[in-house]
Structures are given as C-alpha cells and as structure tokens.
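Dissemination and training. As part of the outreach component of the grant, students in the summer workshop were shown how a complex can be specified as a set of sequence lines and then modelled as a single object. The example used during the hands-on session is reproduced here so that future cohorts can follow it. Participants entered these lines:
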Amino acid sequence: MTPTLIDGKKVAADVRARLVKEIEELKAAGHTPGLAVVLVGEDPASQVYVGSKVKACAELGIYSQKWALPAETTQEELVQLIHQLNADDRIHGILVQSPPPPHIDEEAVILNIDPRKDVDGFHPANVAKLVLEDETGFVPCTPLGCMELLAAYGIPTAGKHAVVIGRSMIVGKPMANLLVSKKANATVTIAHSRTADLPGLCRTADILVAAVGRPEMVKADYVKPGAVVLDVGINRIEDASKPRGYRIVGDVDFEAVKDSCSAITPVPGGVGPMTIAMLMANTVKACRQQIAG
Ligand code: NAD
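and obtained this result:
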C-alpha cells in the first residue's frame, strides 16, 4: 500500500494564507493582532522556538514582543511582566516558552496569564473549555494542528477508534479531548507508559497518534493495515553524517510502518510545521475576541 504523505508544510502554508487575509481585514478596521513571547534563560532549543515564533509573526503582519529574560529572573519578576502584558492593549496573546529554569513554577506562572490571552491553551480555564467543548477557549497548538491535518486531508474521524500514545497536557490529553468531541466523534483510548500490551492496543487503532518522545518507538507491529498515523514526536538522534551531528526523527519508525498505513505524517514536515501556524491562528482568534469585548 502506498500511503498518503500528509504534508504539514503545505497545510501550514494554507493556514497562514488564510490568516494573512484575516489580519489584513483586522488592520483595515484599525486592529493589529499582537503576541508577546517570553523566554527565561538561555536554553538553545527554546531560543530557536522563540525565534521561529517571532519570525512567523513578522511574516504574517502580527505585532510581536520578544522578552528574553536572564536565567536568574525570579518568579515574582516574571509574574510582574505577565501582569504588565495582561494590561497591554497591543498584546492579545501571551506565551511563556517551556521549559523555564527549575526555580520557576511554570503552573503558577500560567495561572497569572489572562485566560483570554492564553494562546497556548494551558490555563485551567481553557482546559475546562476544551473539556466542555466551549469553542471560545484556546486549545494547545500541536493537537489543534493535528486536527487541522486530518480535516485538510478529508480523513474521517466519526466512529473511528483513535489511540493516542501520551497523556501530557500539551499534546496527549488535549488531542484525546479533540478527537472524542461531538465535532470529531471518534472513540478514543489514551495509552501511556503503564499501558499493557501497547503494540496490541495500537493495532486496534484506525487513527494512531504518537506523542511520546521516544525515537522510532512505534514499529510495524503497532499499526493496523490501513490505519492513519500522526507522528508528533520530535527527537534528536546522533548522526555523524549530518553537519550538525544529529538528525530529527519522530516517535514512529517511518520506514517500518509506511507500507501498512493509509496515511502518515513524516518527521520533519508533518505535525511540526502546524504548531506555529496554529499559534498564529490562536493569536488572531484572541484579537477578534478581545475586540468584541
Ligand atoms: P511528555 O514527556 O510530556 O509526555 C510523554 C508521554 O508519553 C507521557 O504521557 C508518558 O506516559 C508517555 N510515555 C512515555 N514512555 C512511554 C512508553 N514507553 N510507552 C507509552 N507511553 C509512554 O512529552 P510531550 O510534551 O507530550 O511530547 C511528546 C513528543 O512530542 C516529544 O517528542 C516532543 O518533542 C514532541 N512534541 C512535538 C511538538 C510539535 O510541534 N510537533 C510539540 C510538542 C511536543
């Protein structure tokens, strides 16, 4: 079977093109969507992510502020900045890049973000709205991007069995909530590190979502013939043949499973590009909602 390669770069470009039009309309009406990105410390991967987010804003015409704070910033100083951004009318979305240094209590910081500006969808008020299927809330960008990919490729979810491997608040749980919602109507199983017979369970999935963080863990015996596989994993593995000394692989052994599934996201170029596109979409949504008051 030749699987459909789900092209996240293309779908993300389509989302961005849609947003450019929306942003032009908002600007014509005197409103510019604004995003504040807060980074504490010098984690190199976080610096790259923050740089990509700010660049994406510039490309789309979204106003952005980048706050790069030193690693020794205190919890109180960070919370003070969040309150300042909550009160700034130019800013409609706020995100604090994860992970912060260990002395910062990330959950406590998130509680200080105005839920209407919580474009990452991590505030408990937004988690509740997701569970309640209240679409005024904000949903974490990566699972939102996965749903966008399924929709873009016309992949049906109603009545299908979806297995989500991973139960994080960033990917696994919101992904499961989106799939089980009345909009998607899938029957959902969440698997995790203590799940018994993971390969056997995964083999019952029509839609398999891997969000684990273990390079190429999902092998051929995890995949039912004809299943749709979404690989959220981003893992660095050593590769001396690459200039940087490593390459990026997903949680799925792509070569091993590709011949048995009907559609699959590659890594890179699958789920990854969707995350920032959905962050931009959430920022525009936040702007619209704040204008409406
Ligand atoms: P996490 O570490 O918070 O959660 C991992 C989950 O996997 C946990 O719930 C754990 O129970 C489960 N798990 C661990 N070992 C397991 C095993 N052997 N069998 C079954 N389940 C197991 O990770 P996360 O933040 O949810 O991220 C998961 C992966 O997705 C990572 O590779 C991360 O880099 C990637 N990610 C990608 C994007 C993107 O933009 N594409 C965004 C966020 C995360």
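The two ends are 51 Å apart (CA to CA). Students were then asked to discuss how this feature might be tested experimentally.
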